[in-house]
Structure formats: structure tokens, C-alpha cells
Write a structure and sequence with these properties.
Layout (H helix, E strand, L loop, with lengths): L1 E5 L3 H13 L3 E5 L3 H9 L5 E2 L2 H4 L4 E4 L3 H11 L8 E4 L8 H11 L2 E2 L1 E5 L19 E5 L5 H13 L4 E4 L2 H23 L13 H7 L6 H10 L1 H23 L3 H17 L3
Parallel strand pairs: 1-2, 1-4, 2-3, 4-5, 5-6, 8-9
Antiparallel strand pairs: 7-8
Helix pairs in contact: 7-10, 10-11
């Protein structure tokens, strides 16, 4: 099978490397910067640098760009994708782009199935991509009305390159849960390191600082797009977080020992009950 990967950053580059390491599929690599594609070709992560002719030969196309850039790529190149090919994205938002990609799928004759690999690092770019990035990770699929055989084929491909589990959901549920599990922690980390104490943390910090601040090393352009496109669910989660922080702050300010202990114990029990 021939697989096209469009965008050779950490996500796309890791797809290429994992496909080459764990399968026998041919990988076609597309990247806006030619030098990155040439590097991927030289180190064996791809078999050929993509062009319109190669795109027309692909059985599966992974879109690994910013959300709206993925839509723009299909608008410009959808005519070259062969009829019946499977196209998927890797975006952290779904409601904003899945309907548009579904419309383009009907227009050009391919099949779109949304997906989101739940893996990454604090650093970005092809140089930090790796074949093992997806080992044991969750692979979220939003079928968007596609035939079950395409959903099954994408699931099988994901499992073959190391993903540990498949989660099938809707774009709405995806965005609601990602607001909590991914976007909210990034907001929290960025807010945390904006404290004037942060530059002086060395010598005073250990695991707690590292855990909370880790994802503040953020791709600001990408995450701005993700936050704004998912603003309703993210705003709801932020309101809940602010409410809970305010309760704890008020207990501390009022020296309400019993209420504070109760709130902290409630959080402890939630985490304990999850077995994590």
C-alpha cells in the first residue's frame, strides 16, 4: 500500500518513521520546506518526495498540518487524489474542519475519516520525530459517516504502527474531551509560568514544578488556532477550573481549615478512584 504523509513535522515525521519501521508500506512525503523532505528521503523515512502524480497513487493520505492548512491543501490538491482513497487528518480539533473535509471528499471522490494521535512532545519539527512516538498511545477516530470498512482499515493501520488503543467518537465529543485533557493543561501551564517567580525557580523546584510547567513549551501559533476554534468547550472547562481555584483561594484567605481540607481530600479521592 502507498501512504502519503503531508507535513513532516513531529507528527508527520513520526508517522513516516513508524510506517517504515513496522510495516512494508511505501511512504510518500510532502513538506512545504523542500530541505526537510530531502532529509526524510536521505534517512529512509520516506521512499519518495511527493508531487501531484505521487499523490494520485496514494491509497491513504495523512494530513499532518495545522487544521486549516489541511483544508487548504485538499482544496488545492484534492483533484489529484484518486477516487476511493482514504484521507485522514491529525488535528486536535474536529468540529471546525471535519464538515469541510467531508464536503471536499464528496467533491473529489475520496473518503474522509477524521483522526487524532494522542502523542507528542514539547519540541516540534522533523528532527524530534521518532518511530516509537505512538507506541501504546490512543488513536482517536471520528468516522464522520464513512463506511465501516474505511474506519476498520484506518484502525488496523494505526495499531500496526504501535498505537495501543482505538477510540471511536464524534467530532463534538472529541472536542469536548480534548478541551479538558489537552487544551486546559496547556492553558494552566502557560498561566503558571507567567508568574514573576518563575525565572527564579532553579534550586527551589523539583517534580511538581516540572509536571505542571512541562507543556508551557508550546507552539504558540498552532495552539492559538486550536484554542480559538474550540473556544466554547475550552471556555466551559476554564470556568470550572477558575471556580475550583477560587474556592481553594477563598479557604486559604479565610483560614478555613476544614473547608480547605475537604476540597483537597475531594481532589485526592477523585484521582485515587481513577487508579492513576
Amino acid at each position: 500500500m502507498k501512504i502519503a504523509v503531508v507535513g513532516l513535522g513531529i507528527i508527520g515525521g513520526s508517522y513516516c518513521k513508524a510506517i517504515k519501521k513496522y510495516t512494508e508500506h511505501t511512504v510518500i512525503g510532502f513538506n512545504r520546506t523542500r530541505g526537510t523532505a530531502e532529509k526524510a528521503l536521505a534517512d529512509g523515512s520516506i521512499d519518495v518526495i511527493g508531487n501531484s502524480e505521487a499523490l494520485g497513487e496514494a491509497d491513504v493520505v495523512f494530513l499532518c498540518m495545522y487544521p486549516h492548512a489541511s483544508v487548504d491543501f485538499i482544496k488545492e490538491n484534492g483533484q489529484f487524489i484518486k477516487k476511493g482513497a482514504l484521507v485522514t487528518d491529525s488535528s486536535g480539533i474536529k468540529r471546525a474542519i471535519c464538515p469541510r473535509l467531508c464536503e471536499l471528499a464528496k467533491q473529489f471522490g475520496f473518503v474522509f475519516v477524521g483522526s487524532h494521535p494522542m502523542a507528542g512532545k514539547e519540541k516540534n519539527g522533523y528532527d524530534v520525530s521518532e518511530a516509537e512516538l505512538y507506541n501504546g498511545a490512543s488513536f482517536i477516530i471520528t468516522p464522520c459517516g464513512a463506511d465501516e470498512k474505511y474506519v476498520g482499515a484506518l484502525s488496523d493501520l494505526a495499531l500496526s504502527i504501535g498505537f495501543g488503543q482505538i477510540k471511536i467518537t464524534t467530532p463534538e465529543e472529541h472536542d469536548r474531551m480534548i478541551a479538558f485533557t489537552s487544551q486546559l493543561p496547556h492553558v494552566l501551564a502557560c498561566s503558571y509560568v507567567l508568574s514573576p517567580c518563575c525565572p527564579n525557580h532553579k534550586g527551589f523546584s523539583a517534580g511538581s514544578y516540572r509536571d505542571v510547567s512541562r507543556v508551557a513549551n508550546i507552539n504558540s501559533r498552532l495552539w492559538t488556532e486550536l484554542f480559538l476554534e474550540n473556544r466554547e468547550p475550552l471556555t466551559q472547562e476554564l470556568e470550572i477550573l477558575i471556580e475550583n481555584i477560587t474556592k481553594i483561594k477563598d479557604c486559604i484567605q479565610n483560614e478555613d481549615k476544614e473547608a480547605l481540607a475537604a476540597l483537597l481530600e475531594k481532589g485526592h479521592r477523585v484521582k485515587q478512584d481513577l487508579g492513576e
